[in-house]
Amino acid sequence: MDIITIERKVLEKNDEIALQIRNKLKINKTFAVNIVSSPGSGKTSILERTIESLKSKIQFAVIEGDVQTNFDAERVKKYNVPVVQIVTNGGCHLDAKLVKDALDKIKLKGIKFLVIENVGNLVCPAGYDLGEDHKVVVLSTTEGDDKPLKYPKMFINSSVLIVNKIDLLPYVNCNIKELKENALKINPNLIIFETSCTTGDGIEEWCNWVMMNIIE
Amino acid sequence: MDIITIERKVLEKNDEIALQIRNKLKINKTFAVNIVSSPGSGKTSILERTIESLKSKIQFAVIEGDVQTNFDAERVKKYNVPVVQIVTNGGCHLDAKLVKDALDKIKLKGIKFLVIENVGNLVCPAGYDLGEDHKVVVLSTTEGDDKPLKYPKMFINSSVLIVNKIDLLPYVNCNIKELKENALKINPNLIIFETSCTTGDGIEEWCNWVMMNIIE
Q: Which residues of A are less than 8 Å from B43 in CB distance?
């Protein structure tokens, strides 16, 4: 019995499927992000704000990952965006196979931007390639400025950090300067946006970055 | 290759060690809780407040679990409480073996209250018995009122729910009545406390519950 070997085999298989997804998206000229964070950092709210801002410019598709419930898919559906809900039934992360199956249910033609919203978990999803172009990690100011140091793998494997809930900064014990310094210590290449889904601050900058990455 | 069988064996082995821990703590008359939550919900802050309130009445010991860093142990150390830091190096939960090894480093005699602070993760630690008397799940108001429904296993396996950061209720989109109803829908036996580590609200009620459980 060799658990480590099996784990490696699972990851190898995952990476193989992720590569198939990446190729499929590339051929279709679909830009894809995998949004990751703790529960309640605001992944779905950011997604809603992004759809509101960009839906007149580009076609979206969304894959929602949740341990239970389809609440997030219901929130997205009202924007008339194709959305597939994956319920992991206790599983702590999405893997490429789940995403591949979900993708088979979406008519990809014309879709310019695919958002995969992962299960709320700052640890496990870090290790799984889903065929996305970039991982985008969301951290809310309420979680504290030390989290990049305490959960480094997610910050190493992400290209973008969205610091969300900046409207709450006056009320919480979080030094945003230190938060960003800590994040850049872990990954100096991180692109950082500061957002509030309540006030709308920073959403434009984030959406500009998305638009820069859309493949014509 | 049968991953499910191996997973079951891993859990069986875990439960066996958890039972040893439980027996050891019982013989020593040590009451033990396993505090679980998402990153940044306030586990360490609640622990600090609890030590401040109760250290003149009972002797504590603390086991800190983190993916990386010993920041939490450093925070606890200043109260002159015996503390052992477990760094999981990417591992997403504590298991009984890690706790057993940590416990071997603590002089248990006279310790009335052992707090195990788990890795910040609302998913994976739910499945692992650490030999504690109770799991205590912390959920901050900033995470939203739907989380008990979205991450049910943790709420099913916990005896206590601490709703933390209630001072932020005026600023966040969280209906605390609904949060509690959702939690009780998942687990009708949950004992619920509402706390703020900023104002100190609710800490006394939580500490009274701890004291009720101390074994003379």
A: none
Contacts of B149 in chain A (CB under 8 A): 68-69, 71
pLDDT tens digits, one per residue of A159-206: 999 999 999 999 999 999 999 999 999 999 999 999 999 999 999 999
Under 8 Å CB pairs connecting chains A and B tally to: 120
Strands of chain A, DSSP E? 31-36, 60-66, 83-87, 113-117, 134-140, 160-164, 191-194
In angstroms, what separates the C-alpha of B150 from chain A's closest C-alpha? 5
Q: Report the interhelical angle of A203-213 vs A43-54 (nearest 10°).
A: 70
Q: Largest Cα–Cα distance in chain A? A: 54
Q: From CA B137, how far away is CA B190, in angstroms rounded?
A: 10
CA A161 to the chain's CA centroid: 10
Backbone angles phi, psi at A136, to 5 degrees: -120, 115
Q: Nearest to residue A4, comparing CAs of B125, B13, B3?
A: B3
Nearest chain A alpha carbon to B123: A92
Tens-digit pLDDT profile for residues A44-101: 999 999 999 999 999 999 999 999 999 999 999 999 999 999 999 999 999 999 999 9
- Is A142's CB within 8 Å of B90's CB? no
**A120/B38 Cβ within 8 A:** yes
> In this complex, which of B6, B71, B90 lies closest to A3 when CB atoms are compared?
B6
Is pTM beyond 0.90? Reply is yes
What's chain A's length in residues? 216
